[in-house]
Amino acid sequence: MAAIQKFKIVFFVPPSALSACKTAIFNAGAGRFPGPAGYTECAFTSKGVGQFRPGDAANPHIGEVGKLEEVEECRVEAICLNRDIAVQAIKALKEAHPYEEPAYEVYKMEEF
């Protein structure tokens, strides 16, 4: 039997939108841990400070065009058990996220 292909998605979100974004990715299938125990909605969340400077053509959710902004954000990490789920989770994240351009990363995981 072939090993399950796993991906990790990581995204950054203001605390006010944390619950909505996690719900969106979980509904898309992210956060399910492989194995017989049936764990779902698994994620790791940490708090930090993000920064950005919106460009001239931006329509920022927070801050002003041209002004450096520092905001409290949460970093969320969750596993996806195949590429299709990772793609659907990112699509759901983009729909739920309040930012004009949400920051996210996707990593392919290796089995050892």
Explain briefly what this protein structure is:
By secondary structure, this protein is an alpha+beta fold.
Name the features.
alpha+beta, four-stranded antiparallel sheet, 2 helices, about 110 residues, elongated, 4 strands, Alpha-Beta Plaits
Helix content: 10-25%
Task: Give the overall shape.
Answer: elongated
CATH fold field value = Alpha-Beta Plaits
Q: How much beta, percentage-wise? A: 25-35%
Tally of alpha and pi helices: 2
Q: Please give the order of strands in the largest beta sheet.
A: 2-3-1-4
**Count of β-strands:** 4
List the domain count as a whole number.
1
Q: Helices and strands, in N-to-C order? A: EHEEHE
Overall average residue pLDDT: 95
Q: How far apart are the termini?
A: 16 Å
Compute the CA-based radius of gyration: 15 Å
Please give the CATH architecture.
Answer: 2-Layer Sandwich
CATH class: Alpha Beta
The biggest beta sheet reads: 4 strands, antiparallel
Low-confidence stretches: none
Derived structural class? alpha+beta
Describe this structure in words.
It is a single chain. The chain has 112 residues and is an alpha+beta fold. The protein has a single domain, classed as Alpha-Beta Plaits. The chain contains two helices and four strands. Helix 1 runs antiparallel to helix 2. It starts with 5 loop residues before the first strand and ends with a strand. The mean pLDDT is 95.
